[in-house]
Design brief:
six-stranded antiparallel β-sheet; alpha+beta; single chain
Length: 246
């Protein structure tokens, strides 16, 4: 059973996601929140401290807290699957395989996945949605050692990450993400229900196990009107690096 301050923190997260408190607005005073949830101000402070650590609200001493971010943004401070991220903000994630085929690993596949020349890898094009709305196209290439397990997952599985954990014990532990923008081609536009040449947010990523063994690499393309990305950093910890376009 969750502690009371955790329940309050989750209630506030959902309120921020619903935009009851928009970015830049103030949370109610501690006394008002304490009365609303029937707890002490100390319990409210614990809940607020949790949201502050997550970067959702500001931490000004002696002042009402300012909302800094909404959870509709996907943060790269932790590695989570699309389905896990959707569940965290109370949304329903869907997935549908558009195409799936085995191919001989290309030079790029061999470099990113560290597989041998001639290795057969699985290419999957998957359409992802939030609450029934298409928001993401994933073009994923799976390493030869995990591809057989992926091949047998049903086409509408909402979370491949969770299924691989359940079926094989595989944990996606590390990820490197490169973010840029591209124009939608004819096929992407049709699948995402946008106009051709519309800008899409592209995230190219490589994911590995705890031991550093590559599992997959992917070219993910998001509708920018549905999803944004956030990186929370500080003077002591900055997970974001700026690079020139490739």
């Amino acid at each position: 059973m969750a502690a009371r301050h955790e329940e309050i923190a989750e209630a506030l997260r959902r309120a921020i996601d619903r935009e009851d408190y928009t970015v830049g607005s103030l949370l109610p005073p501690e006394t008002e929140l304490a009365a609303r949830y029937g707890v002490s101000r100390g319990t409210v402070r614990q809940a607020v401290a949790t949201l502050t650590a997550e970067g959702l609200i500001g931490s000004r001493q002696g002042a009402r807290r300012v909302v800094l971010a909404g959870r509709r943004s996907q943060s790269f401070a932790e590695l989570r699957s699309f389905a896990q991220w959707a569940r965290a903000m109370g949304r329903e994630a869907t997935g549908r395989v558009i195409s799936q085929e085995w191919r001989t690993a290309t030079a790029e596949d061999r470099v990113r996945l560290q597989v041998d020349p001639g290795a057969r890898v699985l290419h999957v094009l998957r359409l992802r949605g939030l609450d029934g709305q298409p928001v993401l196209l994933e073009r994923t290439v799976y390493a030869d050692w995990i591809s057989p397990a992926v091949e047998h997952i049903e086409a509408d599985c909402p979370s491949v990450t969770q299924r691989l954990l359940d079926d094989t014990g595989l944990v996606f532990a590390y990820g490197e993400h490169v973010i840029d923008a591209v124009a939608a081609g004819a096929r992407d536009a049709a699948l995402l229900a946008v106009r051709r040449t519309s800008p899409l947010l592209r995230v190219r990523r490589v994911t590995t196990t705890r031991e550093g063994r590559p599992v997959e690499w992917s070219d993910d393309r998001y509708r920018p009107d549905a999803v944004s990305f956030s990186v929370h950093n500080s003077i002591g910890n900055n997970a974001l690096a700026r690079k020139t376009a490739e």
